[in-house]
Every structure is written in C-alpha cells, then in structure tokens.
Write a structure and sequence with these properties.
This protein has 317 residues and is of the alpha+beta class. It has one domain. Helix content is 24%, strand content 30%. Strands 1, 2, 3, 14, 15, 16, 17, 18 and 19 form a nine-stranded antiparallel sheet that branches. The two termini are 24 Å apart. The longest helix has 25 residues. The chain is built from eight helices and 19 strands. This is ARG and Rhodanese-Phosphatase-superfamily-associated domain-containing protein.
Length: 317
C-alpha cells in the first residue's frame, strides 16, 4: 500500500503496518524517517491565553526547536470559551503566536467543564473541511452553524456546542484509545471509517505522534466511527476452528491477512486526488502548504520535497 499524499512529496522510507480495527474505525499505522528538532504538541506547546473570542495565543516554551501547531487543534478548559484553530503554523523557540482566526466551539457559557480540567482535541473530521475553508476569517462564531448541523445529524440538540460530543461522550470516545494500539516507532496513521478513507496523519517523529494520538483517534475520527456504529447491527464474533495453539495462530494470521487485503482494496479505490500544494508560510527550510481539492483537504509541512508533517482528510462528508 502506498502513502496517499500529494504528488511530488518524497516518501522514501515510509511504510504501512498491519491494520487494526475497532468497530467502524480502522487504523493503519505508518512508520518512517523521523525529522528532528520539532517540539511535540502537548509537552512542547502551551495554550497561553484566549485573548478574546476568536483570538488564541500559543507559546513554544522550548529554548531550541520549532513547534508545528497541529492542524485544527482545539482546547477544552474551565476558564475561557473553548476554541479550535482553523490552520496550522510555526512557532519558534521561546515565541508566542496569536491566532486571530480561531473559532469558538461553544455557543454560550453553558459548556464549561465543572472541574479544573484542560485538554486538547482535534476537530471531528466532519467539521474539518469547513474549518479549513474559514482559515483567515476573523469571526469567532463562524463554525457554530456547522457544529449545530453536525449535532443535529447525530440526534443531539442543534446548537453550536461541540462539547455535546467531546465532553459528554468523552467516556465512549476514549475507548478507541485502548482498542487501537499505538505501536513503537509509529509516526502516523491512515484512518478509515467503514470502508472509506477519512484521514491521513503524519507527524515529524514518534514522540510528536504519540502526544497527538488521543486527540486524533478519540476526537478527530472517533465521533464519525461511533456515529457509524450507533444503530448498526452488532457484528458477529468470529470463531476460530482450531484444535491446537498452532492452529489458533494460523487462523489469526489468516484473519490479519484477510483484513490487510480488504484495507488495501479500500485504499486502492479511495477517490483521493490531493491536488497541488499552495504555500502559506515559511520557517527557515520548512514550508507550510494547504491542500484544497474536491475530495481532499488539509495542510502539509515539507523541507524541500521531504515530507515532515501532514494532516489530510476527506473533503466531503
């Protein structure tokens, strides 16, 4: 299986591992060459403050290295309105960057968490095309209509409150973190919801991806998988016919091969046409570019032709 990224990017050394499946969510791990010197998103990137509605400041407190802000990262907190970013960006060591085009993801004060809890997420994949289109637009309420529609499609009150899913369903969504295994050396993943390729996430190194893992699997792709499973017929438990431990192992290998062949077929027929890269920002040799195509959206970071970071998602629901 090939890595589905825009043409012209150097993916030498990248390989895909065996697929893992949890209900409607299938994850294909990605391994590849690490790119040094990038601050990871949880331990190396801090939410400084929410200046006002739609304005968020992030800080890279490190003394060396650049921070690549994860695309569509958001923060749940008890002391200010919950916000998400519409774009990625670079933050140099010791610097603070203000995002004036952030979007508020709770329509009123009622969504605050009761406890003093702060954590970050990545916008659900169904909301990411709209968020990407709205980058550069300074209007804090710009995603409320899309959030309301997102909630209504899934039987929730049609309000611009993303916490109706992210916090009230958090216990359900975080199950994906334990049902899918983050592997040693993994620095990316392909995510399928049902048989549809929903996203491709590539990090600079395994530490960065490990810190982003929960935000991706539980909150970016977990809601779509959970909603796909809701009301669907319960899958039958597959029984192995074997009369020995070696027989069980052989049956497991056969099942894994069958799943891998199925996922390879899904990937081959995925209608992804990533299109051209439009450069948005530079930091030394790094380039941040946007992919806007009919079927795929997202942003990538490159060093020359070398792939450093990618967050790509299906552009149509």
């Amino acid at each position: 299986m090939n890595l589905p990224v825009p043409a012209g990017l150097d993916t030498t050394g990248y390989r895909l591992g065996p697929p893992q499946r949890a209900g409607a969510l299938t994850m294909v791990p990605v391994f590849g060459p690490a790119y040094p010197g990038v601050a990871p998103p949880r331990s190396g990137l801090k939410l400084s403050r929410v200046v006002t509605y739609g304005q968020v400041e992030l800080t890279n407190p490190a003394t060396t290295g650049v921070a690549i802000v994860p695309l569509h990262v958001g923060y749940i907190q008890d002391s200010a309105q919950n916000h998400a970013l519409c774009r990625s960006g670079f933050i140099a060591a010791g610097q603070t960057l203000r995002f004036d085009d952030a979007c508020c993801v709770q329509e009123s004060q009622g969504g605050y968490l009761a406890e003093r809890d702060q954590w970050f997420f990545v916008l659900p994949v169904e909301l990411r095309p709209a968020a990407l289109r709205l980058r550069g637009t300074s209007q804090y309420s710009k995603l409320w209509g899309d959030i309301a529609s997102f909630n209504a499609r899934h039987g929730l009150p049609a309000r611009g409150h993303l916490e109706q899913v992210l916090t009230r369903k958090r216990a359900v969504l975080t199950q994906y973190q334990s049902r899918l295994e983050l592997l040693d050396g993994q620095l990316g993943a392909l995510f399928f919801v049902g048989d549809r390729l929903a996203g491709v996430e590539i990090a600079p190194d395994p530490v960065y991806f490990a810190e982003l893992w929960m935000a991706l699997v539980c909150f970016a792709y977990g809601p779509a998988a959970w909603f796909a499973e809701t009301g669907a017929p319960e899958e039958a438990v597959e029984a192995f016919e074997a009369d020995s431990l070696d027989g069980v192992r052989a049956a497991l290998r056969q099942r894994r091969r069958r799943v891998a062949d199925e996922v390879e077929e899904w990937l081959a027929r995925a209608a992804w046409q990533p299109g051209d890269l439009v450069e948005e920002e530079r930091y030394l040799d790094l380039r941040l570019s946007t992919v806007v195509a009919e079927t795929v959206g997202g942003q990538v970071v490159t060093d020359g032709s070398r792939l450093v970071y990618a967050s790509l998602f299906a552009a149509a629901g």
